[in-house]
Automatic annotation (TrEMBL):
This is Diaminopimelate decarboxylase. It holds the Pfam family Orn_Arg_deC_N. The lineage of its organism: Bacteria, Pseudomonadati, Pseudomonadota, Alphaproteobacteria, Rhodobacterales. Pyridoxal 5'-phosphate binds at residues 239, 275-278, 375. Residues 29-373 form the Orn/DAP/Arg decarboxylase 2 C-terminal domain. Coiled coil: none annotated. It comes from Sulfitobacter alexandrii. Its cofactor is pyridoxal 5'-phosphate.
Amino acid sequence: MDHFLYRDGALYAEDVAVADIAAEVGTPFYVYSTATLLRHFHLFDEALEGMDHLVCYAMKANSNQAVLRTLAQAGAGMDVVSGGEYRRARAAGVPGDRIVFSGVGKTEEEIRTALQGGIRQFNVESEPELAVLNASARALGVTAPITIRVNPDVDAKTHAKIATGKSENKFGIPIARAREVYRMAADMPGLEIVGIDVHIGSQLTDLAPFEAAYRKVAELTETLRADGHDIRRLDLGGGLGIPYERTNADPPLPSDYGALIKRTLGHLGCEIEIEPGRLIAGNAGLMVSAVIYVKSGEGRDFLILDGAMNDLIRPAMYDAYHDIVPVTEPAAGIDRAPIDIVGPVCESGDTFAKQRMMPPLAAGDLVAFRSAGAYGAVMSSEYNSRPLIPEILVKGDQFAVIRRRPTFDELINRDTIPEWL
Ligand SMILES: *Cc1c(COP(=O)(O)O)cnc(C)c1O
């Protein structure tokens, strides 16, 4: 569910007409709904009611300061995967003890930043990382709270580029080696083991892979406890998918997911952390773009937009489907015809949709890409020297630019011509 609906023939973001935002900031742009962000956060929070828990929003999905502040004020923790994300979370007002640090390649500098600034836990992904963390903590005279990310060798049945829980993936340590690695960690005086971490992938549309992974985590918890480790916290990762394409087989709800967690892990008495990203931010955002040209080709027509793959890379990168709707509601019963929807970038991959059934559109008309709030703006680039597009946050009848469009001078002046040239 989201808060982008037609009212009297015009698409609204909560109580703001999308066309009014376009008139003020120009196209293309991203627009996010506060109400949808909060609704999704609360669905997860409520799904875990009755268990000691923290929802740590995976901020790589959308890390705008205003989005982080919105969720942090509602009580969210954050899952960060770099020193930059750690700094962003702190700058948005998230206390260190609500931040978990994930990622396979944490550098010594990133580790030090988090140890000095305060951290809830590091989710450690390898033995060399354990050693660096131990040394850094000892040098600073502190103890680093850790979980170890285990790779349960479960097929998440999602796109190969976002599956992370098979043994061939770079993430975590093989679950079969967990006892040995926990023993090593226990012998390092700079570390304090607090639990276990797992994250098997993104855009999962079925609970079965979660269930398989969580059953292995339950078993491992008991084994590690018998080995003398104080396993009191389980970080279960993120990954619950969203319905990009309206079908009859919608992904499971956060409440189903919460019930699964209680069923598989509730008996262990652990504090639970989850790290949803996409399900919180995905349907809370649109990318809005204008038609530049309608072009007739050989056997097919093209809708050429001012938004492109550098602004929203998911279709090019993951063959992702996004619903694309006109900002002015088409008349009921209007004829639709197949058309290719593309951007202006000089790559054939700059194609958002092929042979999509669309009502007639003309130059200047606005369209909105739905479900663009996660892995949209954060993955954008300035390829083809197209400035990063602005981000807008709506709350009720108010809206604000939360990242402005850079000027061409800013874009060009980031480069330096050496004096010897
Ligand atoms: C990407 C990621 C998440 C979030 O995944 P979503 O599919 O956006 O929910 C959570 N945890 C880790 C470690 C991740 O890498």
